[in-house]
Specification:
The protein has two helices and five strands, in the order βαββαββ. With about 90 residues, the protein is of the alpha+beta class.
Length: about 90
């Protein structure tokens, strides 16, 4: 399963990327997370359906320092060959 997420709300400057890195690596989910110029957090999650869906549910809440207002989720159609989860700076 490959999912692309855009997470809106108070999600930058609150440790969201590091929090998500820990969650993804615990579940052996690959992909990346980065901040966008517009203030969202953008995410690619690749893994089995159960683990990816569980991380998406956790992203709906986020770390305690964040306030997630909305998540847009799409299937990711492009190839991605990374074998880990990365924080893109």
């Amino acid at each position: 399963m490959k999912k692309h997420l855009l997470i809106f709300g108070k999600v930058q400057g609150v440790g969201f990327r590091n929090w998500l890195y820990v969650k993804a690596t615990e579940k052996n989910v690959h992909g990346w997370v980065k901040n966008t110029i517009k203030g969202e957090v953008e995410v690619l999650l690749i893994g089995n359906n159960k683990d990816v869906n569980e991380i998406i549910k956790q992203c709906e809440i986020g770390p305690s320092t964040s306030r997630v207002m909305e998540i847009k989720i799409q299937d990711y159609k492009q190839d991605y060959f990374g074998k880990s989860f990365s924080i893109i700076h």
